[in-house]
Specification:
Blueprint lengths: L1 H19 L4 E4 L11 E11 L10 E12 L9 H4 L3 H14 L6 H9 E15 L5 E13 L10 H11 L5 H13 L4 H9 L3 H6 L17 E4 L9 E4 L10
């Protein structure tokens, strides 16, 4: 349930950066206080819940993203558009509208990924009290809590379609995105392949998986060898020989 929240946080951050460009500072999960000298958006993974990977049952995750919008009241702006000229609380409504547009599927590849990873969404907006920074800058702010029904945690092993698309888009980016993509893929695979990955995803042992008839009894995930194998040939010799385990009956239809 942690990886879907991280995925949505990355997608939202990149979608907003693509939309705002240099007009708005966009921060993802900042670990230190942010100096507000211009319009700023900070995104945080507030909470994630759902069924952990490794067990039978319905999937799906619930993710809460906290979006904080800041706009200085008396910032100096020159040569900007009418929307950019707006400052303080008046600007916050238009900033949020731009965020909605950035997350729309038609906005581009990040908007399309947002659509793939979330199934439904509700939001709550709060107007926060005006505050003043240590440098004397008065700042208006809004807080928006997005409650998102999202994809479940990815199964262990090969990334599925939505996750593969996210990894490809991240690797096409710059800065730290390709490195984070490598770390994310490693977390998805978790060093598991084949039947071992399937067993871990279902939360069972390899032996249990084999008993269910779903996988291999071998630790390396390879199909088990046939025991007491014999070769059966058709009498007319026109069909290739077939190897079967002793005790099995192989129907031979006329050629």
């Amino acid at each position: 349930m942690g990886l879907p929240g991280l995925a949505l946080l990355i997608i939202a951050t990149q979608a907003l950066r693509a939309r705002f460009g240099a007009d708005v500072v966009v921060k993802m999960q900042p670990d230190a206080p942010v100096e507000i000298a211009a319009k700023t958006v900070c995104l945080f993974l507030e909470r994630a819940s759902g069924k952990p990977i490794g067990g039978f049952g319905e999937g799906g995750s619930t993710v809460v993203l906290r979006v904080e919008l800041f706009s200085p009241v008396d910032a100096e702006v020159s040569g900007a558009s009418a929307a950019q000229m707006l400052q303080g609380s008046a600007a916050l409504w238009f900033m949020w509208r731009d965020i909605e547009a950035a997350l729309a599927p038609s906005s581009g590849p990040w908007g399309e990924l947002w659509e793939q990873f979330r199934t439904s969404l509700t939001g709550d907006m709060y107007s926060m009290p005006l505050f003043e920074t240590e440098k004397g800058v008065k700042v208006a702010s809004h807080l928006v809590a997005l409650t998102i029904s999202a994809l479940s945690s990815p199964p262990f092993g090969e990334p599925t379609q939505a996750w593969s698309a996210l990894l490809a888009q991240m690797r096409a980016g710059s800065g730290e995105l390709p490195l984070i993509a490598d770390l994310l893929e490693a977390a998805i695979r978790s060093g598991m392949t084949g039947f071992s990955a399937l067993a871990a995803t279902l939360g069972v042992s390899n032996a249990t998986l084999a008993a269910l008839g779903l996988g291999s009894i071998n630790a390396d995930g390879a199909p088990p060898p046939l025991i007491n194998a014999v070769t059966v040939e058709n009498e007319d010799g026109l069909e290739p020989p077939v190897t079967v385990a002793t005790g099995e009956t192989l129907p031979m239809e006329p050629f």
